[in-house]
Specification:
287 residues; five-stranded antiparallel β-sheet; DNA Primase, Chain A; alpha+beta; Dna Topoisomerase Vi A Subunit, Chain: A, domain 2; globular
Length: 287
């Protein structure tokens, strides 16, 4: 009986955890808000009009597009696909154990993407998108281009980061995708240090924060944790290697592997320990 009562009390405490704080940790921020409520683009699907409401007074959420709602435990369980116990562990410990964000919307299949044009980043919608992610247009232009591509007889445009095999990581407000071939992006300035991130917006966030990463280090954007082992060959040529990988199981395991591979590596995740990645933390800093 005592154990059952302890679990109930834990649930009661967890329900008081602010829904907005939980969403912020996972990279979701309100489009508009008042004293009583906040509106988000739904974390469950792609949309252009915010239909996901959080009541600040009741600490409850309701997704008008899906016709369902609940408390913070219900929300995290649905988003992460976790059990109540796993969700309670996350809410109580402040640690992210699952990377749900990339699973919500997979975008287009990689096959069939044809790059049509690459140019300087200038489309207003893309400029607005990088600003929402906490990145200035000037900084975005240092690493990224505007990429127009086609798929299934339709044309699209995205922010693009080219990888070492001349494929592209493609991002816009609605889709996260990549063209073949997939690879990491290594930017060699000839410096003695190396900064490693998982995604392009994590690196841009670090560069936006201050100029030191670019001035004192070379940059490596993995684009996928599948390229962790490929990065091994770069480590020995540097005096220091800073790791800014995601705060999920896969990211933490990748950090362990890199730390085992070289004593030059340092885990920098304490900077954004309450958030899923560097960009989620940086966006919260910009609010």
């Amino acid at each position: 009986m005592k154990r059952k009562r302890s679990h109930k009390l834990s649930c009661e405490r967890a329900r008081a955890f602010p829904i907005e704080k939980a969403l912020a940790k996972l990279g979701h921020f309100p489009i508009r808000s008042t004293e009583k409520e906040a509106w988000f683009l739904s974390p469950f699907r792609s949309e252009t009009q915010a239909s996901f409401k959080v009541s600040r007074l009741l600490n409850r959420w309701y997704d008008h597009g899906a016709g369902k709602g609940g408390n913070v435990i219900d929300l995290v369980c649905l988003l992460n696909g976790t059990s109540v116990r796993e969700t309670l562990d996350w809410l109580e410990n402040g640690q992210i154990s699952f990377s749900f964000h990339q699973q919500l919307f997979k975008g287009f299949d990689e096959d069939g993407i044809k790059i049509r044009d690459v140019m300087e980043l200038r489309h207003l919608a893309l400029q607005e998108y990088v600003e929402i992610r906490g990145i200035s247009l000037i900084m975005a232009k240092t690493l990224c281009r505007e990429v127009h591509y086609s798929l299934r007889d339709k044309t699209y445009f995205s922010i693009g980061l080219q990888n070492d095999s001349h494929g592209w990581e493609l991002r816009n407000k609605y889709y996260k995708n990549s063209s073949s071939p997939k690879d990491m992006t290594y930017i060699n300035y000839g410096n003695r240090g190396l900064v490693i991130t998982e995604g392009m917006f994590d690196m841009l966030s670090l560069l936006e924060r201050d100029k030191e990463p670019r001035e004192g280090n070379d940059l490596l954007i993995l684009n996928s944790l599948a390229f962790v082992e490929k990065a091994f060959g770069l480590l020995e040529s540097y005096e220091s290697v800073q790791l800014y990988l995601d705060n999920d199981k896969a990211g933490k395991r990748a950090v362990e592997i890199l730390l085992e591979q070289s004593p030059k590596c340092r885990d920098m995740s304490n900077l954004y320990k309450d958030f899923k990645d560097v960009n989620a933390w940086w966006m919260s800093e910009k609010l």
